[in-house]
Amino acid sequence: MKKCLVFLLLAGCGFRPMFSGYDADIYVAPISGINGIDLRNSLNAKFGGQHDASARYTLTVNLGEPTTQYKALERTGDATWQQVSIGANFELARDGEKIASGREVAAESYTFVRYLVAANASYNNAVKNIITVLADKISVRVITATADYEKEQTDR
Fold this sequence. Notes:
Double Stranded RNA Binding Domain; five-stranded mixed β-sheet; alpha+beta
């Protein structure tokens, strides 16, 4: 009942989710590395599918390498938790003019165990989660920048 009431209140106020029916004409330039491929695919999905190089906007992303840091140590000196983080610089352009740029960083902790297969699985899952978070962060900033730019152009 409460969910229905909240929905009705939001429907009447003009609230519209940011990604609702949004098909941005954004070309995501290839990003190097396996993680770059995953990030590019995630970004294309956020922007309504893959667009070619003749798209209105071009997004260039430079994805850094994952870095790990020990977070918890046993008395023996063995690590039990590690944190992996990845940073990405991005630039959004239209007709060669830079519209927006920035840097996003995401990190996640994972269990580091003595068994190599389990430790690798934990690490790989953490990296995949980070790529998803980076795609979310970058896409929100890019869609906001394109909406602001379009509004600015129509106000002129």
